[in-house]
Design goal:
By secondary structure, the protein is an alpha+beta fold. It has six helices and four strands; from the N terminus they run ααβββααααβ. It has two domains: 38 residues; 98 residues, Band 7 domain (Tetrahydropterin Synthase, Chain A). Strands 1, 2, 3 and 4 form a four-stranded antiparallel beta sheet that branches. The longest helix is centred in the first third of the chain and has 35 residues. The chain starts with a helix and ends with a strand.
């Protein structure tokens, strides 16, 4: 074989090896990211913050007492949520003040989503990942 053919084959083998190594690395990194996104129940409990019960009125004069469990992505984010409790209360009072009894009964998921979105807008250390309603009384 000529020297040119040997050089081409060697170059081709090197390029294929580099491609295989790169593919293995990329696939492992993607797999680790996908596995890392799911929190265990112990992490969920550790990174959760339970709001105090909040009592406020709705637009039609009804009263609601509500409490949430806010799940964050890290310990630092949970600590920040604890410090931002006054903002959590403010967001909830403003959100609930626009609702009447019927829209509250059917729109609780919207309240959770709104709280999650608005909290993430103000947070600097991590993110809130989920909001769960853990206590609700409508009078």
């Amino acid at each position: 074989m000529s020297k040119l053919v040997k050089t081409m084959l060697l170059s081709l083998v090197i390029i294929i090896l580099i491609g295989v190594v790169a593919a293995v690395i990329v696939l492992n990194v993607i797999e680790k990211r996908e596995q890392g996104d799911e929190q265990s129940i112990d992490e969920i409990v550790e990174y959760s913050y339970q709001t105090p019960e909040i009592t406020t009125d709705l637009s039609d004069g009804s009263f609601v007492r509500i409490q949430f469990q806010i799940v964050t992505d890290s310990k630092e984010a949970r600590e920040e949520i604890e410090k931002r409790e006054f903002q959590v209360r403010n967001i909830l009072i403003k959100e609930l003040a626009t609702m009447d009894e019927e829209s509250f009964k059917t729109g609780l998921t919207n309240v959770e989503d709104s709280l999650l979105t608005k909290l993430n807008e103000v947070m600097t250390d991590g993110l809130a990942t989920d909001v769960y309603t853990i206590n609700k009384i409508l009078q």
